Amino acid sequence: MAASTETGSTPSIVLANGFSQAWKATIFNYKNLLQKANFRTRHTEIKELFDSFETFDFEKIMLALSSAEKVCETYDFPRHKIDEIKDDQEQLKNSLIDAISKTHPERSSFVTTDEYEKAKPFIFSFRKVFTLNGTDQIYMI
């Protein structure tokens, strides 16, 4: 059954993190990624930020660090502290990339036949499928 718009045409769809989470929530979620993340020499400090903000959301912490950098520059904080914040932003980004790499399925055989058969009709009901945020699980289908 193809999806259709009010005019009867077949719509396109944009898939993002929600598609991955709907497929395998145990893998594709921030809590799991945080558990896998290694912040190296800054692990204690960066992990404390997640605890302080009561979140698993890497983007929220990145935004907080970016905001802190701007505030510190505005109030003329010591340069070494501002550099520390910038370094933590880079470490946070790299750790997220590493955690995603560690948890991401390596091959399409990770998708079971049953999962493939359930997803296929949904995907093929759209004229074009666009993906964001590393949702290449769609290509496994």
Protein architecture, described:
With 141 residues, the protein is mostly helical. Helices cover 57% and strands 4% of the residues. The protein contains seven helices and two strands. It has helices at residues 17-23, 30-36, 43-52, 58-74, 79-103, 113-123, 137-140; strands spanning 13-15, 129-131. Strands 1-2 form a two-stranded parallel sheet. Helix 4 (58-74) packs antiparallel against helix 5 (79-103). The longest helix is centred in the middle third of the chain and has 25 residues, at 79-103. The protein is elongated, with a radius of gyration of 20 Å. It starts with 12 loop residues before the first strand and ends with a helix. The model has no long low-confidence stretch (mean pLDDT 87).
Give the count of helical stretches.
7
Strand content: under 5%
Estimate the global geometry from the Cα principal axes: elongated
Provide the spatial order of strands within the biggest beta sheet: 1-2
- Helix/strand order, N-terminal first: EHHHHHHEH
How would you name the oligomeric state of the polypeptide chains in this document?
single chain
Which consecutive residue ranges, at least 5 long each, have pLDDT under 50?
A: none
The Cα radius of gyration reads 20 Å
Q: Level of helix content? A: 55-70%
Tell me the total number of β-strands: 2
Structural class: mainly alpha
Distance between the termini: 17 Å
Q: How can the largest sheet be summarized?
A: 2 strands, parallel
Mean pLDDT: 87
